[in-house]
Amino acid sequence: MASSVTEKAAPCCSSESPALAVSDWTQHPEEPAHNALPLHPIEVLPGSHPTTPAPKGLPIMVKSHTSHPLDPLSAAEISVAVATVRAAGATPEVRDGMRFIEVVLVEPDKHVVALADAYFFPPFQPSLLQRTKGRPIIPGKLPPRQARLIVYNRKSNETSVWIVELSEDHAATRGGHHRAKVISSKVVPDVQPPMDAVEYAECEATVKNFPPFREAMKRRGIEDMDLVMVDPWNAGYYSEADAPSRRLSKPLVFCRSESDCPMENGYARPVEGLHILVDMQNMVVLEFEDRRLVPLPPVDPLRNYTRGVTRGGVDRIDVKPLHVIQPEGPSFRVDGHFVEWQKFCLRGGVDRIDVKPLHVIQPEGPSFRVDGHFVEWQKWSFRVGFTPREGLVIYSVSYLDGSRGRRPVAHRLSFVEMVVPYGDPNEPHYRKNAFDAGEDGLGKNAHSLKRGCDCLGYIKYFDAHYNNFTGGVETIENAVCLHEEDHGILWKHQDWRTGLAEDGKIEAEVKLTGILSLGALQPGETRKYGTMIAPGLYAPVHQHFFVARMNMAVDCKPGEAHNQVVEVNAKVEGPGKENIHNNAFYAEEELIRSEMEAMRDCNPHAARHWIVRNTRTVNRTGQLTGYKLVPGSNCLPLAGDEAFFLRRGAFVKHNLWVTRYAPDEMYPGGEFPNQNPRVGEGLATWVQQNRSLEEADVVLWYVFGVTHIPRLEDYPVMPVEHIGFMLMPYGFFNCSPAVDVPPNASVLDHKEDGMSTKAISNGLIAKL
């Protein structure tokens, strides 16, 4: 799964105002930062910062910092952390058994981030700090960065968590000094950490070399083991036999038809009827049964997702190229992992001058017809992060609002889980309910993004570093990309008298694609829990659930906890004197006062949405400033209350959860969902505290999904399907923040023959 930050922009015939969007937000538990160390404070005069020449008598910062407190760990820092933990092993046997599941940044307290942004790193934002009497006091340097490591010991079957303190010297060295400081270590009992690709490969080899398995494949006409694909799946938890005292996998088996075709879709030939249980610690087959002989599905000529000629046809030749041209470069600026995007000017001032043109050029004409349009956008700045579990993380989202300075909107945004339960009660499909983040990792499965396919125009790429199973460093080049693309109309209104206009919205979306997990059937057999795709081949029904964790901070400076959440429902006015025409309806707000009240579901009949408001900041009408969460299409689990996957995934029972921020509450199903025997761990347990939300540092957990009833058009690879939600300002601004985007002097209408153009007047424009 590839992660990308997408900055969306307008074509040449628009107002040339790019729109910013974040796609595929794809965390490690935040632990209290171990930064209570003696720091020497220095006094800073208002308006100055430690990296600029200080007034006479004013000390400057003791030491510069090369890494922001929220920057992802570098490759050198990962190597140093691994070497430090390995060296701390009590015995050679312990050190030899160490396998490294995850090495991530310990995210510091929010006040440390605020100090860094105010005085240590550009663009230097002292306005983020709360006002205090007298001159602000800041430390001479920031606390050292720390790494958090999840270590699985293959010899003892123990999982442990380590905290290591890094330094600039340690971070700058790779393979040299590695005596960083171990802050703490603890064994976490009764858990299994995520599986690793190295284990997957070892498991496949173990199964393929198991004599009873080879005999079972021979019964199905397969003797060439190079054709066989063994996919280890986590065991889940269905009984005490799946307890985390053993590290287990229940693989699924598939078989290709050609050994010399690496692009063949082997998943189009599932092997049914085999029960396999593998001990992943010792790599031995614990259980094997050939329960039912189902013939392999016949070779389907449509099974491959390769060039048309390999499927008995040809690729289409009428798809014409589309080029994105930005002659002045992008409208965003990147400094390390900090991103700024456009400037904001107050009304009564001047139009923005830093919105650079983005041209969409199609030298052979378009493959479809469109109208010219403006692009929706707001002014944003944020930091780009990355973890092997979540993938893309976005920090410190804020809006530069003229004289009001930088106004925070959210502290941290990411996807923290993805669950895919299947709806077929038959073996093996009933146990397909992968927790893709918690059992495997979204980030470490990211792909390198490619120009022209994943990203267009001027592109800023971010590489991602993560550890492998043995502690080495892997690098995903171009794991995250920042670019501009067309996203539709910014604002528009047509008045028959004046021809003036306005409208706009911000939308976040997830694009789903991939291959189907198929099953094989006996000749003549049908099954109501799926769709027949080809002879002997069917696709079970299933659902996809995503969990977006949003630690909001609407108009809250670090240290402030002044947010609350209200639910808004549209109500129909009953008949009576106030509704004599029976057409009346209104919006009714209800404050969500506590966590037990905050387990909410979508209701399209009432246009239900939720608003995060600042309890102490108002707009010009006296209303509290806020941001609202508007659901898109959504669903709830289509499973009975006693379904086993709901023991570990109780969080999918509701579309929205709201909690009071706690640094160790990061994953909705708990940190270790793999083989987790504890019912309702995570969100469902945390909310039992029923903490107050009336004025708090709030976290929104939005669960959204899609019910997938497969169709033939989803085979062999599913075209993109879109789901998502919107985050929209609600009284955050005093008016539309987009009205100062300068219009084009003229808009050109290209005729279909491409031979001539004409200017469109300010008359009525019909959109086809």
UniProtKB/TrEMBL annotation:
Residues 1-24 are annotated as: Disordered. Residues 68-167 form the Copper amine oxidase N2-terminal domain. Contains 1 topaquinone per subunit. Its cofactor is Cu cation. Topaquinone (TPQ) is generated by copper-dependent autoxidation of a specific tyrosyl residue. Keywords: Copper, Metal-binding, Oxidoreductase, TPQ. Signal peptide: none annotated. Its EC number is 1.4.3.-. Pfam families: Cu_amine_oxid, Cu_amine_oxidN2, Cu_amine_oxidN3. It comes from the Eukaryota. Residues 193-295 form the Copper amine oxidase N3-terminal domain. The keyword NAD does not apply. Residues 358-499, 501-738 form the Copper amine oxidase catalytic domain. GO terms for molecular function: copper ion binding; primary methylamine oxidase activity; quinone binding. Gene3D superfamilies: 3.10.450.40, Copper amine oxidase, catalytic domain. One of its GO terms (biological process) is response to jasmonic acid. SUPFAM superfamilies: Amine oxidase catalytic domain, Amine oxidase N-terminal region. Belongs to the copper/topaquinone oxidase family. PANTHER family: AMINE OXIDASE (PTHR10638:SF90), COPPER AMINE OXIDASE (PTHR10638). This is Amine oxidase.
